[in-house]
Amino acid sequence: MMRHWFSARVLLLVGLVMVMAGYGTAWSAHTARADEAKPPAKKEPWKPEDFIFSESVGQYRISPDAKWLVWVKSAGDKDKDARISNLYLSSLTETREIALTRGTDQNNQPRWSPDGEKIAFISTRARPKPKPETAPMQIWVIDAHGGESWPLTELAHAPKQIEWLDKDTLVYSAEEDPALYEQEMKKKKDDSEVVDDADHEPPVRLYKINVKDNKIMRLTTNTDWIETFELSPDKKYAVASHAKSLHYAFDQKVRPVVILHDVGSGQEKQVLADLRIRPEGFQWALDNSGFYIATPFSTDARFMTAGINIVYFYDLASGRASQVNLDWENGLGFEMQRVPGGFVALLAAGSHDEPAFYSKEGATWKRHPIAGDHAKNMETLSMSEDGKTIAYVSSNASKLPQLYRAQLDAGKIVSPVQVTKLNEGLVNGRTYSKTEIIHWKGAGDENVEGILYYPANYEEGKKYPLTTAIHGGPQGSDKDLWGESWAYPIQLLTQRGSFVLRPNYHGSNNYGLKWSESICCGKYYDLETPDINAGVDYLIGKGVVDADKIATMGWSNGSILSTSLITTYPARYKVASVGAGDIEWISDWGNVSFGESFDAYYFGKSPMQDPQLYIDKSPFFKMDKVQAPVLIFHGTADTNVPPAQSWSYFRVLQFYGKVPVKFVVFPGEPHGPRKLTHQMRKVEEEVAWFDKYFFKTPKPDSEAVKEGSPLEAMFRTKSLARSGSNYGAAVTVKGKSVLVPEVVLRGDLEIGRFEVTRAQVAEFNKNYKIEPGTENYPANGVTFDQAKAYAAWLSKTTGQTWRVPNESEVSALHEKKDGENTLDYWAGYALNPDDTARVQKKLSELPGNAPLLKPVGSFPGQGKENEELIFDLGGNVAEWVITSDGKGKALGGSADQPTDPRASHEPGAAYIGVRVVRGDLKPK
Asked: Are the CB atoms for 308 and 330 separated by under 8 Å?
């Protein structure tokens, strides 16, 4: 969960890095032309893969001449079970797109060389003859005009950040090469870890590399860990954030420091030491006069866990810093970009961000609002060096993101042009829920804001179910931006007829300092829970929500608050889906990477100071109140919320036994699943849970139906094969044509080549109904007496002896069942008893009383060399034989039973027929 104030930013960065992948050597380009007239796309229902495999754009940068834009497109790859990405170039002067890389490796951090001739990036693509013990991720370079990319490094530790120093030199940060200690551990294959082992954690330093000869020089010899750095425009300085403690995230005792490095001389000095800051990013002024630094601000004396973002400017000449007056109560949003005369920023404004230009006027700054298309729907932005061209990603809660380019003229975005055409199949092929920003009175009678998604089938005057989808953090927020994901597949709920409310409760970011800090110091749960429930009350009061149909879902802190809802208002919430959330706080404190800085901040004390407080805050001790069926998810490698929390959640509900509960574990996954198979499993389990317990439309069990099997195809089409041919000889008897079964020899036995067909039985029994097209199917639902009666009729009609065979003379023929029309064929695999039961239960969905039958002779026949073939002995219908005591017995395989040799199988009555033999029984 995003459990420290800057986590939203950190997780977004991590997400971008993780999804950026792909490589290639060939260029491809196309120039867009006017689209030909096309019929409107057919609207299809939303599916889980729409969110998990969708395309996204990020890490875009404008070229030095402002004519090109390099960006990264990410998409899910089924074969890799991960998101991959590739680099693209888009023209800023015409409609043209060029694919720089192809493939399924990770490529990210594209950086233009100062002359615009080359692009550096980091990638996991395969290198020719790589050295052993080198990291998968390395620095690569590609000519911006085309050609092959080439690897620049073979580092033992992957590069973390890259920037150009000049047209031939890159600066990068990376862990120092392995010390003897690390080398010895690798030799021993010892993967043990010592927690917070500062003595052996490799320092992160700055290096430079020449792109012509690959020569590397160390720029710093620091013994700490550089987190991020920024080069000055004249390339004389690098300002960097240095971590001084490996457990700062846990306790926030030793903050990072800011070091100004002289790139030429190697000298360095600490700056901003008198300020209480935690560097979140740097931007140098274009005139080299100094740099801007973004940092969190909190009124808490110890922690910076919750607060707002503010900006300082460090003046290089005076060596002093001053706070930039943003003239904006909510503080800085996500983005800040330098331009001539100042910087452009996105400012926190609740459910959206406000773009603004800040001009430096002497020792102060003045805010100038930016207006125009998409101004209130920007996710991120990038500016050209001259400040005239802007690139940005825009979306809203009902519109997929796209990358745009535009001009910034006199404080207005003008001439916007869409650059990307991501997810074209989804853009026009899906129905998007209507959304609106709503407000209601929450805890303390304060105004709460949220995003409301309407049911796809909404009609005014009707009442609908409602699901609260609660964001993590609590220092996160939901904006009027596209927010669908594996964690929150909103459209899947709205198309099922539910409203979805995404509330920005007390403690959310983007709403100012007071709101952000409101739940600190022991107030955690006290304001957020009633906020969300009041939003439900508001919608019920508006007459649009059915008060008896309320559900909740959330991941991380959203899970925590969903659990609070079902324990505080147990009768209201009918279903819950929760992922990676806490329910017991004492054990949380020491088992996560930021236990003290989160728990002690929001609860006001550590568990050692007040263990009873932690018990009182823990829903674990209130789980006997829960009335909602609960679905739980967690990854086993989560360091944000201990996996044991979900085990306790599962076990305590199991202990009380009052409600259905299901726990899905994702092996090796961190706070959120990265494997696409795990993401799909999460969404599919969640939708099935809601279908069963909330929408009351459970899908029949189909887990034993294999994708691509004949049975799956039959369920999908709900249709049966038809054939009108007849197997048998038409013999004229007393002036009438009679279909006589064809026989072959097996020793002295003349046995039917095929099972008796429906057409043949219909001649005997005029009341026997045959669906048109199934005349050549085996007669089924035949009783033992009917089988004998048919043989007797055939004997009388033909003047020949026909009979039901004795078990002793045909049992050996029926032993082979492989490759026949059995339930294994339909399932596409060898069924065990459990899957057999599942499949047989599901067969009731198919039309007809014996839908698995096929025309006789559809499968390969049996017979030795020089023998005529006999068909369907091991499948289709089981066949009546006469036992030694004169009774009837159904022998052989049938389409409704598996071939499992370790079990005996009784065919259903609808899957029993007959095969006749000709001639008298031969004496032994």
From this structure: yes
265 neighbors 280 (Cβ within 8 angstroms): no
Residues paired with residue 399 on neighbouring β-strands, in sequence order: 396
pLDDT value, residue 194: 96
> Residue 682: in which H helix or E strand, if any?
helix 676-693
**Cα–Cα dist 585/603, whole Å:** 10
Whether 376 shows a pLDDT value over 50: the answer reads: yes
CA 259, 264, 266: angle at the middle one, nearest 5?
Answer: 45
Provide the pLDDT for residue 37. 47
- Residue by residue, DSSP assigns 443-475 as GGG-EEEEEEEPPTT--TT--EEEEEEE-STTT
471 Cβ neighbours under 8 A, 6+ residues apart: 477, 478, 502, 504, 508, 554, 557, 558
SS3 567: helix
555 and 579 Cβ atoms separated by less than 8 Å: yes
Helix 557-568, helix 528-541: angle, nearest 10 = 70
Helix (H, G, I), strand (E, B) or coil at 192: coil
pLDDT digits (tens, 9 = 90+) for 773-815: 999 999 999 999 999 999 999 999 999 999 999 999 999 998 8
pLDDT tens digits, residue range 882-900? 999 999 999 999 999 999 8
pLDDT at 711 over 90: no
Nearest alpha carbon to residue 60 among 390, 357, 439: 390
Rounded CA gap, 517 and 739, in Å? 89
Q: What is the rounded CA–CA span in Å between residue 834 and residue 829?
A: 13
Q: How far apart are CA 845 and CA 287, in angstroms?
A: 73
**How many of the other CB atoms lie within 10 Å of CB of 172?**
26
H/E/C letters for each residue in 573-596? EEEEEEECCCCCHHHHHCCCCCHH
7 and 511 Cβ atoms separated by less than 8 Å: no
Distinct helix (H) and strand (E) counts, the chain: 21, 47
**CA-CA distance, 858 to 879, in Å (whole number)?**
17
Do the beta carbons of residue 255 and residue 303 sit within 8 Å? no
| Residues in contact with 35: Cβ distance below 8 Å, sequence separation at least 6, in sequence order | none
Helix, strand or coil, per DSSP, at residue 381: strand
- Parallel, antiparallel, or unpaired: how do β-strands 352-361 and 342-349 relate? antiparallel
The span from the CA of 865 to the CA of 694, in Å, is 62
Q: Give me the pLDDT at residue 2, please.
A: 34
CA distance 17 to 11: 10
Task: Please report, as a single letter, which amino acid is at residue 84.
Answer: I
DSSP string, 856-909: TT-S--B--TTSPPB--TTSSSEEEEE-TTS-EEEES--TTS---TTS--PPPG
Give the separation between CA 771 and CA 235, rounded to whole angstroms: 84
Sign of dihedral through CA atoms 907, 909, 911, 915? positive
Residue 329, token pair as written in the block: 């109560």
For the record, the structure tokens of 459 come out as 């009609």
Residue 514's contacts (CB-CB under 8 Å, 6 or more residues apart) are none
Cis status, amide bond into 670, omega within 30 of 0: no
